[in-house]
Design goal:
Elements: H1 6-34, H2 41-60, H3 62-72, H4 81-98, H5 101-124, H6 127-148, H7 154-159, H8 168-193, H9 207-221, E1 228-232, E2 238-242, E3 245-250, H10 257-276, H11 292-306, H12 310-323, H13 332-339, H14 356-371, H15 380-392, H16 418-437, H17 441-446, H18 451-460, H19 470-478, H20 485-497
Parallel strand pairs: 1-3
Antiparallel strand pairs: 2-3
This protein binds zinc ion.
């Protein structure tokens, strides 16, 4: 194959152009979520919609399909960089072009209204206000799944957009193993948590001190502040504007420094992945993260496995005391106990790392039933409340604390939730494998030396981009596909035995 095969060069150039425009869109979104004055909202929304439409047209142009077909006849070696990029471009191109333009427009219009209706419905805790919109979104999503095609379940076609290759049947098997095992850990974990009052650390933690401490921790785990920064927002996220520019965001609670700290550890975990992607492949699949389930493994690995470990607080307690003198009255073990407190609650985003998955099982089950036509939308609140009580032992009395709490369905994101649980499973499996490769890892982490772990992740995950499909990547890095066992070992050790 000649080094510069013309159709491939054209694809690469087109991908780079799309990445530049998308990066500008990311910048505008980041600004919208951080510093933008409120009156700019209408203009900014239009601007973003225009950029989104523009990149969509750039990618779905007929000649892109022609270049792809020409490349597929081009005889690239199956393990070459080109073959990996072509595989992903083909997948994305087919997904983008199989939807009729009318369906895309109808979906966009419906979800714009649905989001507004959902906000209102949540505020008034009245599902009826959201119901007609959810009915439309479910019907449109099922039509999208039909256009994309699927072998087993329409759910598969939707989940493919977040976790390429995953099947509802695989998730069902994983969750069926997790559910009783988590229930078995929950009892003893609750008993242990009862010794730690939820507001033990409640105090006064000035914003500037939190920022300074968070920055030290993020720097220590390897986040490069010459290629990124931290800003304040209401819904924390990590945005990559391009190589060398990764923006973390968090929010602060002056009475509880752990919120922003764990928020930053989480987002910095996403950020380390982004900073570790190969810049020379910027804009192509090889320079892009593998999937949401792999991305979430990186954030949860640093937040939970590193940040919530008792060893973390052994090292960081004295440093934290420099910033927050009132922490001197606590022991490192008390700080770790607070960080690992387990307590069932109504809201997913506030859940502890164990009961979190119970929230996911409910959403997965519900979405699957909606997409497979086994549950009418009208029955969602009743079904939610009944299952929630079975899973978490709490009675939902307001839809705002139940089926109306998440934004995902209102923007038409079905099939997204399981990637959070996959992230936890992948994180535990990766840490287990890294520790097997480096027996000294645990003692290094206890001394706050994070370099070996980060290098291992760089090598096994970050630098690979989308060279492999997500489950192949996990297989490659750990020797097996995603399993529940490592996560279960981890929570048993941390929350019950430790
Ligand atoms: Zn995350």
């Amino acid at each position: 194959m000649p080094a510069a095969f013309a159709p491939y060069s054209k694809l690469r150039k087109r991908a780079r152009e799309i990445a530049w425009v998308s990066g500008a869109g990311e910048m505008l979104t980041w600004d919208l979520e951080t510093y933008m004055p409120p009156k700019a909202l209408g203009f900014r929304a239009e601007q973003l919609a225009h950029l989104g439409g523009y990149t969509h047209r750039l990618f779905t142009a007929r000649k892109v399909g022609d270049w792809l077909s020409a490349c597929e006849q081009g005889g690239f070696a199956p393990d070459s960089d080109e073959a990996a990029n072509l595989r992903e471009w083909r997948r994305l191109y087919d997904r983008a072009t199989r939807l009729p333009a009318r369906l895309v427009e109808e979906f966009e219009r419906t979800r714009a209204h649905a989001r507004e209706a959902w906000k209102e419905a949540r505020q008034q805790s009245d599902f009826q206000l959201f119901k007609p919109h959810l009915e439309k979104l479910v019907a449109l999503s099922r039509r999208k799944a039909d256009c994309w095609g699927f072998a087993e379940s329409p759910y598969d076609a939707l989940a493919e957009g977040y976790e390429p290759g995953i099947r509802a049947s695989q998730l069902r098997t994983l969750f069926a193993e997790l559910r009783p095992a988590i229930a078995a850990v929950l009892g003893p974990a609750l008993e242990r948590s009862a010794a730690t009052p939820p507001d033990l650390l409640h105090g006064n933690y000035p914003l500037a001190a939190q920022q300074a401490f968070n920055q030290r921790v993020a720097e220590a785990i390897g986040f490069d502040f010459t290629a990124g920064r931290i800003d304040t927002t209401t819904h924390p996220f990590c945005a990559t504007l391009g190589p060398g520019d990764c923006r973390l965001t968090t929010r602060y609670n002056e009475h509880d420094f752990t919120r922003s700290l764990y928020g930053i550890l989480h987002e910095a975990g996403h950020g380390l992945y982004e900073q570790g992607l190969p810049a020379e492949h910027y804009g192509t699949p090889l320079g892009t993260a593998a999937s949401l389930g792999v991305h979430e493994s990186q954030s949860r690995l640093w937040e939970n496995h590193v940040g919530r470990s008792p060893a973390f607080w052994q090292h960081w307690h004295p440093v934290a005391c420099e910033h927050f003198p009132e922490l001197k009255r606590f022991t490192p073990a008390q700080l770790a106990a607070v960080a690992n407190r387990v307590s069932p609650s109504f809201i997913r985003t506030e859940a502890d790392q164990l009961t979190y998955h119970l929230h996911i099982f409910l959403r997965f089950d519900l979405e699957l039933r909606l997409m497979e036509g086994q549950l009418p939308v009208a029955d969602v609140p009743a079904y939610w409340n009944e299952e929630f009580e079975k899973l978490l032992g709490l009675k939902v009395t307001r839809d705002a604390d139940g089926c109306l709490q998440d934004i995902h369905w209102s923007i038409g994101d079905f099939g997204y939730f399981p990637t959070y649980t996959l992230g936890s499973l992948n994180a535990a499996q990766l840490v287990h494998r890294a520790a097997a490769d480096y027996p000294a890892l645990e003692s290094e982490l206890a001394r706050a030396q994070y370099g070996t772990l980060l290098s291992w992740l760089r090598e096994k995950v970050h630098r690979l981009g989308q060279r492999y499909r997500p489950q192949e990547l996990i297989q490659h890095a750990t020797g097996e596909p995603t399993r529940a066992a490592y996560y279960l070992d981890y929570v048993r050790r941390l929350l019950v035995a430790g």
